[in-house]
Hints:
By secondary structure, the protein is an alpha/beta fold. It has helices at residues 41-49, 69-83, 96-103, 109-120, 139-160, 170-178, 193-203, 206-209, 229-238, 252-260, 319-322; strands at 4-11, 14-21, 28-30, 33-34, 55-59, 85-87, 90-91, 127-128, 183-188, 214-216, 245-249, 264-268, 285-287, 300-301, 304-305. Strands 10-9-5-11-12-13 form a six-stranded parallel sheet. It has a three-stranded antiparallel sheet with strand order 7-6-8. A two-stranded antiparallel sheet has the order 1-2. β6 (85-87) and β7 form a beta hairpin. α2 crosses α5 and α4 packs across α5 (139-160). It is globular. The chain starts with a strand and ends with a helix.
Amino acid sequence: xxxxxxxxxxxxxxxxxxxxxxxxxxxxxxxxxxxxxxxxxxxxxxxxxxxxxxxxxxxxxxxxxxxxxxxxxxxxxxxxxxxxxxxxxxxxxxxxxxxxxxxxxxxxxxxxxxxxxxxxxxxxxxxxxxxxxxxxxxxxxxxxxxxxxxxxxxxxxxxxxxxxxxxxxxxxxxxxxxxxxxxxxxxxxxxxxxxxxxxxxxxxxxxxxxxxxxxxxxxxxxxxxxxxxxxxxxxxxxxxxxxxxxxxxxxxxxxxxxxxxxxxxxxxxxxxxxxxxxxxxxxxxxxxxxxxxxxxxxxxxxxxxxxxxxxxxxxxxxxxxxx
Length: 323
C-alpha cells in the first residue's frame, strides 16, 4: 500500500507544502541535482498511522555535523577571484577573522554577500573585472550578480567538500535519537541545496538520511537564519509545538533563529564561535562537541524535553544567567 507523505518543495523562491503519494526518491530540482534528501521514513509511517511525535531533535549542518566554514570561505574567495571583484580598486577577499564576524551576524550565503557590499562596503557594489558584467548600481542588479556568484561558489565548494568528517559524537547522538520512539530527527541547514547535499551525503550517509523525519535546506525558505522560518517550518511538518523541539547549532545566527522560533537550543561551538556569549543570548546549553557522548537521556526523558539540558555535561552557566 502506498504511503501518504508531505514534503516541502521550494517553488520560485517561496515555500509550498506539497502532498505526494509514495516514495519521493529521484525528485529533481534541476537537470544536474536532486532535491534535499527526502525525509519521509518514520514521519510518513507515523502520519499514516496517526501516531504523533512527542518531541524533535533538529541539527544544523555546517559547524554542527561537520566543520565546513573554512571551506565555505575559501569557495567564496575563489568565486570572487573568478569574477575579478574589486571594491575601491582592491580585490574582494574575506579573511578568516572577517568571515568569523559574518557567520555570527548573517545566515545564508547570499545574505552574507549582500551584507558585505551594502554594510561593510558602505553600499558600494563591486566592479567585475574578469567577466562582461556591468558594475551593479542598485539592489536589483546587485542581487543578480550575487545570484551568479552563489552559483559559482557552490561549484567550487562541491569540489572542496569531498572527504568531510563528522564532529565528535554527533552521529552517535543522532542515531540514539533515531532509535528512540517518539523523537523526530531532522536537519535544517541555511546552505543552498547543492552544497548541502554534498556534505550530508558524505558525512551523514544515505542510509542514515533515509531514517530522518525532516530535512530542509536554505532554498526551501524565503527567510534565512536568524529568521526562525526554517525551524518553524520543521515543527509544522512534524506536527509539533516549538517547545517540544531541541535545536543543535554552532553560531549566534543559528541560536537566534532557534530562540526566535521558541525552541530550546544546544550550542556545540567551534574555534570560530567559541568566544561568543551564547548563554547571554539564551542558549540552554553549550559545549565544545559531543565527543564525551552525553547520553540522550541528558536531553530527553521518555521522549519529552527535559527542563535542564545536558546538566553535568555542558559548560557551566554564569551565575547571572542561572538566576
